[in-house]
Amino acid sequence: MTALYVLDVPENTSVAKVAAEDPAVTVGKIGPYFEIRADGPIVIDRRATGCRHAVWYSCVAGVGGGRIVQHDKNALQVDPV
């Protein structure tokens, strides 16, 4: 299982919200973080989140069971290892 951790602050709420729109993804909370989990890849479109670039590039707090293969102005993708 792939997991992406994003700090639960108002600026990052839209990242978790957009991730949750994918039926293959579950979003929960662990401590002060959103835990975004999936059996396969996690892909989040930056434009759909409405995040500005500074927020977008600083939203990742951690990754478990996967690795970031894309994190640019278009999308964030975490693939399972």
Automatic annotation (TrEMBL):
This is Uncharacterized protein. It comes from Actinomycetospora corticicola.
